[in-house]
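#struct-pred
JK: can someone run the complex with heme C? inputs below
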Amino acid sequence: VFFRGIVVTLVLVLGASVIAAVIPDEGLTRRDGGLARLEGQALLYPEGYERWPVVGAAIGLSYSDRPVTRDGPGNFHRVYLSPAAYDAFLTARTFPEGTTLVMEIYEPAASAPPLRAGFYEGRRVAVEASVKDRRFRGGWAWFDLDNGKAERAAPVASESCLACHREHAATDMVFTQFYPRLR
Ligand code: HEC
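RT: done, structure tokens with the ligand placed:
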């Protein structure tokens, strides 16, 4: 009876782990895959995005109406894509629901020994994000994450983000034409 009890327990434990492996935990999957966690329209801070694939980096891009006034090369932009969306895009060439992109902006820095020329990423000045979700008008929303300090962020209210991304971005509101990993 004792041994039968152990066998039954083992079977139950094994069975439970097989089921757990087959049915993914929705919460875990969303967090691990970096798919957006939304509360209503608000985006919860995409914890751990620093470990996501970097799909492109740029320096000195300017596309706002403000005149370009700068010494040096202009800011660095670095764009991260949530891992589940990255995998999906490489196979299907489309972005799944929940896709999150994060763009960090750094000021250029120079002149630290032993450098004689060139620029590296200095102070971070902005963290922005975009999320694909059909709850948003146009299917996407854009967020200012307050240079990484926002625990949650409401979508940027102005239409300007949507307008430019819709008109000029190569793939579904995303500027894949500037990202070597995706184009
Ligand atoms: C006039 C055009 C324009 C406007 C307006 C604009 N963007 Fe972008 N955005 C770009 C371009 C070009 C890129 C790609 C290259 C880069 O900046 O590194 C980009 C890239 C991004 C990315 C990286 C993912 C992607 O879609 O390629 C995010 C996130 C982003 N923008 C957020 C915003 C937010 C938030 C706003 C509104 C506050 C905004 N953008 C307004 C032109 C624009």
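RT: quick notes.
The pocket of heme C is lined by residues 58, 61, 63, 77, 79, 101, 103, 128-130, 142, 144, 156, 160-161, 164-165, 169, 174-175, 178 (CB under 6 Å).
The mean pLDDT is 88.
JK: thanks, will look after standup
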